[in-house]
Amino acid sequence: MSDTTAGLLQVGFLIALLAVAYRPLGGYMARVYSSDKDSRIERGTYRLLGVDARAEQTWAVYARSAIAFSTVSVVLLYLLQRLQSHLPLSLGLPDIGSGLAFNTAASFVSNTNWQSYSPEATMGHLVQFAGLAVQNFLSAAVGMVVAVVVIRGFARSKTDRLGNFWVDLIRTVLRILLPIAVVGGLALVAMGVVQNFSGGHEVTSVIGQTQTIPGGPVASQEVIKELGTNGGGYYNANSGHPFENPNGLSNLFEIFLLLLIPVCLTRTFGLMVKDKRQGYAILGVMGTLWAAFTFAATFFETQGAGTATQAAGAAMEGKETRFGEWASALFATSTTGTSTGAVNSAHDSFTPLGGGTALFHMMLGEVSPGGTGTGLYGMLVLAVLTVFVAGLMVGRTPEYLKKKITAREMKLVSLYILATPTVVLVGASLAMGLASARASIFNTDSPHGFSEVLYAFTSAGNNNGSAFGGLSANIPFYNTALGLVMLIGRFLPIVIVLALAGSFAQQTPVPVTEGTLPTHKALFVTLLIGVVLIVTGLTYFPALTLGPLAEGL
Amino acid sequence: MMASRLPATMRQFGVAARALIVFTLGLGVIYPLAMTGLAQTLFHGNANGSVIKVHGRDVASDLIGQAYTRQATKDGRPEVDADGKPVMVADPLWFQTRPSAVEYDATGSGASQYGPNNADLLAAVQQRRKAVAELEGVDPAQVPPDALTASGSGLDPQISPAYAALQVGRVARERGLDVAEVRQLVRENTSGRTLGFLGEPAVNVVTLNADLSALG
């Protein structure tokens, strides 16, 4: 079978798997978030927490709960790292310094999983499984519940009540993430991923050299790392490490897991707003963008541009033999279109335009299909903008899902759209202006060096977490700057979309008339794709020309 | 009733702290322990790193690559570089794995991070092409890309079937084995794409060399 045939079958198989899961999981999640029944373990948890499960919150209280929970999470994760040497199962590793501990805490709580450190040399087992992996569940859940509130904002009217954060959070973890993680984690072990608490097993090779085989509860973390679109590797090589991703099947399974919830949430959305076609339209936009970027990345990688790449005969630097160019490009697109940031190959060594495709994919705001929850609410904000733009063109009052888009909503949408690019571009400019930050660049002999810095801030601001890994980011400037960018890029948009949801929920629905723009048809899908590309393309185009475009064209 | 009199925000922080403790116990302690218990029971070998034995001794994980190198000699003495580190060259008795950014030290992992136009990478690729062509006694143009590039993990246990085929003649000659016999061993250690289309065909050098070692 030729590489192209196998590669295309691989993509087709992935889409088929997602299609099979779409209705059951999307419908199940809609029921989870609409149900008024609590399981016994949930009731027990509410009592323990002192939460009245039937008391719904306004958007502002919901936001305060989410922020309070995330703040406490940052503090605990910070402390666990600072006190590592005193904790069990730490493999004799020292306490983690304050700058790195802050960066890592911000990173995992914001669902970014940017890693300024090399895990094998930095994080003991305990910090990983009791700190980082816990946030892999919780940060994913926070994104999902915020998306659900945005859906409720459209689905409900004449109310200021949007649900209870604690109930939504606990249900997300117990009913959705944990069951899939248990089954998926065991499936990963069956494929070869390790799951133990060993501190390393020494072997003597056939030529008499010793080698230490690393251990760790990897599968239990790997599964939620993908499912929760987190991306933080147990090992430095992330999903390129054979113990995280041993073969072609595990590779496809991990890509499936990281796309699963973002894709199926569009079904949940369609069901909850009682118009499934709206969900299909959103999925259509996400899917088209994902397919286009997958095609582009695969094309550039198989073309193999670059002097060193051409000297080697193929873009295999930084890629595993078992994955090759196709499965590496597919992973790269899927991880940057979601907020995952796991990598099965070194993006820094991708061809100029192949790596540029991954970078540009994040710049779209990670909406194709985006992170768990974040992708859906990000795309819904862009849908509101699209309706507004279309309304301007034909001179009608814009409305989306029977809700009027007034000045208040548009102010929030504008803030949302400006928030992330601002911190990304300001951060990257600042870094390029500082000699100490420029000194961290690894590939100094081409525009590639600037791409490393731009990639870092884009990844942090969009809560992706992948990197052009040559950049030595474990210095005070990057630890602080990227940490702040991750927190702002995560929580400012969350507060804005919750406010937007609150605003929509209070409205009285407007009747659908002949003049209403249908938001489930191909015309709207096309318009929305255009808005996604133009809004982000124009924002980042100047920066892209200095990096990947200068290197690749 | 105390709780309701506290400022609302403080109350949220209290709930948040209690929730985080509950989640940390459930997801950070019980979940990984239960998963480890299940994995160790159901898939013992995989869960512990797929370790393989030769003559009853643990020699490797079949997922983690190793270096099959020896110290170079210069004027009859072991060669060291400017930093005093031993200079390692391919041991012709064994099949060779790919170049590695971490030299197959599995206490770490990672890629070179060289960009596609990096001059140092270009020089390394050219030097590797020359070295591999010399070792195998073939035309430099025949050396496949995976022999010239470092993997993403630095622990890649596999090489392309093309690179394995290139090494068969040399390994057979050095070991005094029949070429057909070595070629058969390569075939036995070659995996196709999973389900016929997932990933790439590859030869596992670690298990291949273990088989060679088991021969004698």
Task: Characterise this structure.
The complex is a heterodimer of chains A (553) and B (216). Chain A is mostly helical and 553 residues long. Helix content of chain A is 66%, strand content 2%. In chain A, the strands form two sheets. In chain A, strands 1-2 form a two-stranded antiparallel sheet. Chain A has a two-stranded antiparallel ribbon with strand order 3-4. In chain A, a hairpin with a 2-residue loop joins strand 3 (399-400) and strand 4. The two termini of chain A are 33 Å apart. The relative contact order of chain A is 0.12. Chain B is an alpha+beta fold and 216 residues long. Chain B has two domains: 2-46; 50-215, no CATH class. Chain B is built from seven helices and nine strands, in the order αααββββββαβααββα. Chain B has helices spanning 2-5, 8-42, 44-47, 119-136, 161-175, 179-188, 205-215; strands at residues 51-54, 57-61, 69-71, 73-74, 77-78, 88-90, 158-159, 190-191, 202-204. In chain B, helix 5 (161-175) packs across helix 6. The radius of gyration of chain B is 25 Å and the shape is elongated. Classes of the chains: A mainly alpha (553), B alpha+beta (216).
Following the backbone from N to C, one meets helices and strands of chain A in this order, namely: HHHHHHHEEHHHHHHHEEHHHHH
Mean pLDDT score of chain B, rounded? 95
Q: Report the span from N to C terminus of chain B.
A: 79 Å
Unreliable segments of 5+ consecutive residues of chain B: none
Strand content of chain B: 5-15%
Radius of gyration of chain A (CA) equals 23 Å
Number of helices of chain A: 19
Give the low-pLDDT segments of chain A.
Answer: none
Q: Please give the number of β-strands of chain A.
A: 4
Give the CA-based shape of chain A.
globular
Structural class of chain B: alpha+beta
How many domains would you count in the coordinates of chain B? 2
Strand order of the largest sheet of chain A: 1-2
Main beta sheet of chain A: strand number and arrangement? 2 strands, antiparallel
